[in-house]
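Might I ask for a little of your time on a matter of protein folding? The record follows directly beneath this note:
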Amino acid sequence: MNNKPLSQHKATGFTIVELLVVISIIALLVGILVPAVQKARDSAKTTQSKSNIHQVMIALVNKQADDSDRHFSPAPDNLSRMVDEPGLENEDDIETAISNAGGGDVLGIELGLTTGAQVAYISGADGVAPFCFGEGLTQSSSGKPGYGAWRYPNAGQIAAYMNNAPLHPTFFAPKDTIPLAALEGCDSTSSSYCASHAAHDRWGIPYFWESNMLGAPSSYCISPAMMYDPAVYQWDMLQGKLPMDPMNLPRGFKPPSTSQAKYPSQKTWLMEHNWLQNVDNNECGINWGGTWFMQGYGSWDGCEPEHFNAGRSSEPVTVMGDGSTILFKMAEAERDSDNVEKGDPYNNQGLGIWDHPLNGQAMGGGNARSGGYYAGYATDWVHFVGHVYTMDGIRGRDKLAQGK
């Protein structure tokens, strides 16, 4: 009988120490890869926004070409003359001019077709004026300083070049999550106009999202300085030229042509309205109490994001006057403006107009000088007033050339 000793097999497996080492390595890899993936996704969204805003620019260019090189504006060129005493002596406001020009015939921003196949418009100053000032004769018809056609490059007049869809995805930046979330209910309507609660209150039609605005503005906004006569933003202390109310100018509402731009590579044209790049604050701004953004249903379902000029880290995707698409660095632009102000004894404003007489207190905010598009609601030292209040309008600039 062949007796062989039974072989003894040693039990195999991982020791606790080995498992801990493996777990540590996996955790390290996750810590390295997750931020990289998030950064890649963020970069992809920024790239998509650049593509979107470029397409919006092309739609605006096509509209401009069809209108004899006239920058988009729903206001008639001669609107300021539709009053009893046109010119400097005029005391009639824009609503009077709109009424004299035909009232409902001056339709303003086209929002699209309702479920009843009717074309909806933002009429009155809100839909006709490029920008509604806080003081003077060109104010909002609904108490919304800073509102106006500049917020609507997705107006039906432009959306006609984008499949007639004012809510076409191209009009919205992928990172603009607050508006996108508020508009999710619009997927359930087959019409091109997605009515808000405010629209329901006015017209009695079904609504799909909560807002005190009649229509959803695009993620991108047009520079009002590209929509008004340059005299609205003039500033020359030596010649005594100060900004004018468009209602006191013979052609105050006539948009300038592209050829009038002196610094096309330094003047903004289209820009992300909300702070979307390098956000270091809450998605919903915390300082909007008391402003129209929080009145009634709020602008976006009770929320208003921080704006493009809310902080030094903001770098909105922007199309410049020459058609180039860049990340516009707020901190650098603010320093450029400060340097211009310090270097010119006859310029106490910089590149933008801080002290525009039509701005009013509502948009000034708490921690800024009197001017700017809600610049005083910024979260730090940057209180950029350009894009909206560019000195000399289309003839001015919002940043200096590199090395200047």
